[in-house]
Amino acid sequence: MHGNDKIEASDKNSFYRELLLQFEGLMSDEKDWLASLSNTSALLYQNLPHVNWAGFYLYKEGMLVLGPFQGKVACTRIEMGKGVCGTAAREKETCRVLDVHKFPGHIACDSASNSEIVVPIIKNDAVVGVLDIDSPSLERFDETDQLYLENIVKKLEEYIDWSKIS
């Protein structure tokens, strides 16, 4: 059983180091992809300040399909290249958007969202999904957030048997 205490730290790097420790604890003994992604979305949602949505879209049948998440009801399917999620997946690189209202083609699942970061999940050079985090704050995500969230995704790429997701 894992604690539900919110992480408190003196600075952003210390916060993320603690978050990574908790993440590793959740992942180390779990082999089920659904449990792993569910707990990861909960861990991020409960601990990242100023976040109103955290979750995953999984690549299925040529589209991104809603996976485990925390937050309000979300878009179920996103076409590759559409919105921030589809763009990150198509480009195979992180999209950090300081103001979603200035992003051409932004898909507004929650009108309260003002900034977003999407990290593609890549296995064997193929996109298998994305980690998507939204915030009601403008310019919420910076280079430090990107670095650590990409680290979490790299670990998910290693821990999860992505061939079992269909």
UniProtKB/TrEMBL annotation:
The record's listing under Gene3D superfamilies reads: 3.30.450.40
Gene Ontology cellular-component annotations: cytosol
**EC number(s) on file:** 1.8.4.14
Q: Which UniProt keywords are listed?
A: Oxidoreductase
**A GO molecular-function descriptor:** L-methionine-(R)-S-oxide reductase activity
Tell me yes or no: is Oxidoreductase among this UniProt entry's keywords: yes
List each copy of the GAF domain by range.
Answer: 54-153
Q: Which InterPro entries match?
A: FRMsr_CS (IPR000614), GAF (IPR003018), GAF-like_dom_sf (IPR029016), Phosphatase_reg/MetRdx (IPR051330)
The record's annotation in PANTHER family points to:
FREE METHIONINE-R-SULFOXIDE REDUCTASE, GAF/PUTATIVE CYTOSKELETAL PROTEIN
Family classification = Belongs to the free Met sulfoxide reductase family.
What's the protein here called?
Answer: Free methionine-R-sulfoxide reductase
- Organism of derivation: Oxobacter pfennigii
